[in-house]
Design a protein that fits this description.
There is one protein chain. The protein is of the alpha/beta class. The strands form two sheets. The protein has a seven-stranded parallel barrel with strand order 1-2-3-4-5-6-9, surrounded by six helices. The protein has a two-stranded antiparallel sheet with strand order 7-8.
């Protein structure tokens, strides 16, 4: 049994955050790198790719709506063409800088509001998937488990990876609990590792309200900006290893 551990990185703005990102690289297998629209710039992209290369972590793009002010967490009314162009722009930026270091990007995971919108709106999901397929049909599309983003990816001929979260609470409908609500983040390492084990071994997650929800995932996310992120990642990886689950990058088993 194998699972990928991913984290959204390239978003650091302080020395402490940067130190946390490098520490996470030692524990994860896939890095989703901010491409400049919600966070990041050429220097941070280059630095994060360098970290990933050093620690043998798969490099992926983390594109968003053009929303630096709102950190990509604000939904935007864009046409499908505008969405495709925004994603192509960001993929091109990351791929070019990664190529400079001899690294090829392996996957794409949309960020924030774009991720959530594409999970429930097929029009947006198809635009995301088309952009990725046009850029490189070998890329893996990462999306919320059970969402229409995965269906859109399959329709475009992409490999897809269903994602679940160790550090986020779920609503009863399988969506993620809004960060604006109490209890949205799971910051207790033991609770996060228990949720990760439930996802992998039992193929289910318990919602914030207590319902048991089915979930089948190939990758588990630990956000780089979650408090205790490094401690959480270490606990999750230790728990998975303890029960014999191999942690490996998506492209090695999909």
């Amino acid at each position: 049994m194998r699972i990928d551990l991913n984290s959204d990185l390239g978003e650091a703005s302080t020395p402490e955050q940067l130190k946390c990102e490098e520490a996470l690289m030692r524990l994860i297998t896939s890095a989703n790198i901010a491409c400049g629209f919600h966070a990041g710039d050429p220097i941070s992209i280059d630095r994060t790719v360098r970290f990933a290369k050093r620690y043998g972590v798969a490099v992926g793009a983390h594109p968003s709506y053009p929303d630096r002010v709102g950190f990509g967490r604000t939904s935007m009314k864009l046409s499908t063409e505008e969405i495709e162009l925004c994603i192509l722009y960001q993929l091109g930026a990351l791929a070019t800088i990664a190529h400079r270091q001899g690294v090829k990007i392996k996957h794409v995971k949309p960020h924030g509001a774009l991720y959530n919108d594409a999970a429930k709106d097929m029009r947006i999901a198809r635009a995301v998937a088309r952009a990725i397929a046009n850029f490189d049909p070998e890329l893996i599309l990462v999306g919320l488990a059970g969402s229409c983003m995965l269906e859109a990816g399959r329709k475009e001929g992409l490999r897809v990876a269903a994602e679940a979260f160790a550090d986020r609470a779920y609503n009863a409908d399988g969506s993620l609990r809004s960060r604006t609500l109490k209890g949205a983040l799971i910051v207790d390492p033991q609770k996060a590792s228990q949720q990760a084990l439930s996802i992998v071994l039992d193929k289910r997650v318990t919602s914030f309200e207590g319902q048991k929800l089915p979930v089948e995932a190939q990758t588990i996310c630990i956000h780089g900006d979650t408090p205790n992120a490094v401690v959480i990642a270490r606990a999750v990886r230790k728990s998975l290893n303890k029960v014999g689950i191999e942690v490996a990058p998506l492209h090695t088993f999909l």
